[in-house]
Design a protein that fits this description.
CATH topology of the largest domain: Tetracycline Repressor, domain 2
Helix content: over 70%
Distance between the termini: 70 Å
Order of helices and strands: HHHHHHHHHHHHHEE
CATH superfamily of the largest domain: Tetracycline Repressor, domain 2
Shape: globular
Strand content: under 5%
Number of strands: 2
Radius of gyration: 23 Å
Number of domains: 2
Length: 275
């Protein structure tokens, strides 16, 4: 009986990805909120103060520019307290990612498992994309995966190109990212996996920007759209991403065809061909 209940729940979840996204969004919010409340319920202590101070500083100034002394000062602690609790600044950043992304990655994995059971490939693709997008919007605060402050931190970390932050980002997200890319490729077997990686990369950029600067949508639409409407943002992202994933693969002409597209011209000074 228990097995049938689990099977029914999985099928119901897959259907909800297609027909009841609002209900699914609300249930995801509740799930992530419970995880956040557990974090909040912890007795405030120096470790928590250090984490909060570090996240605020990293999301504003980046990882490279922030020192252990800066974090200690913001937390009302001494530098020795920071190294006592986290040993290094790297471990501190890793813990920030773990606390935020654990619930989000767990929910993405649950929704992806349900999405992969959808039989129709077109519907499955939509369900997979929604399974990825929806959990990022499911936080009303900065103690779970979709918080604006943490999203800003993620964008800054990605832009810095620091080897430490690259390793932490890979450690946190690569397994989930590979799972989604593989699932999309199964739905679009005629599109090369490398093409899907590029398109997933663009989705991530759009997701960052939508979460961090929703007021831009409101401003440029002259009030016709509300950039803070998470439900609308999710559906717009899902629709745009599904369309981009289904676009024809990039035509890559042979090098000889590219060279013959225009006649070579000789530069008078150095003799190099201009193309």
């Amino acid at each position: 009986m228990g097995g049938w209940n689990i099977l029914w729940q999985r099928r119901s979840l897959g259907q909800a990805l297609l027909t009841c996204p609002t209900d699914l969004y609300n249930s995801t919010i509740n799930m992530v909120r419970k995880s956040a409340e557990k974090e909040k319920a912890r007795k405030p202590n120096m470790r928590e103060a250090i984490l909060a101070a570090a996240e605020e500083l990293f999301s504003t100034n980046g990882f490279n520019a922030v020192t252990v002394r800066d974090i200690a000062h913001a937390a009302g602690a001494n530098p020795g307290s920071v190294t006592y609790h986290f040993k290094t600044k790297d471990e501190l950043l890793l813990e920030i990612y773990r606390r935020h992304c654990g619930p989000m990655n767990q929910r993405r994995s649950e929704l992806l498992a349900a999405a992969r059971r959808v039989r129709d490939l077109q519907d499955r693709l939509e369900a997979i994309v929604r399974a990825y997008v929806l959990p990022a919007f499911s936080s009303g605060n900065d103690l779970a995966g979709g918080g604006a402050r943490f999203t800003r931190l993620r964008a800054i970390m990605s832009a810095e190109g620091n080897e430490i932050t690259r390793r932490i980002i890979a450690q946190t997200f690569d397994d989930t990212s590979h799972a989604f890319i593989d699932a999309i490729h199964e739905s679009l077997p005629h599109i090369a996996r490398a093409e899907i990686v590029w398109r997933s990369h663009f989705l991530l950029g759009a997701l960052y920007y939508t979460l961090v600067t929703p007021e831009r949508v409101s401003r440029l639409s002259r009030g016709d759209s509300d950039g803070t409407d998470a439900g609308d943002a999710i559906e717009q992202l899902v629709r745009a991403t599904v369309a981009s994933m289904q676009a024809p693969a990039l035509d890559r002409p042979a090098p000889s065809r590219r060279r013959s597209a225009a006649p070579a011209k000789t530069h008078a000074d150095d003799g190099h061909a201009l193309r």
